[in-house]
Structure prediction request, 91 residues.
Amino acid sequence: MNRLTDAFVDNMIEKEIYLQRKQSVLEEMKVMEEEMADHDDQEDFIGRKVTEKLELLKSLYLSYTMGTNDKKGRSSKNCARTAKSGKKMCL
Prediction:
């Protein structure tokens, strides 16, 4: 943008060409800013999903450690069966 302005000030390009190029540069900058904002939103979404999964794992661990031996055995079997069946969570 600076080089474009310098070229206009130095009378190297006409005002009409300057304005067209300036508009083009501004539009490109706007598109880039929108893409960056979308990227940030995606990172936030992924971060929230990872946090949710970690909280689920933490609560599963706490449930297991606080449970009785009988319940711990059942939890382990349920997790093993769940892993074999391809389900996403241990219950």
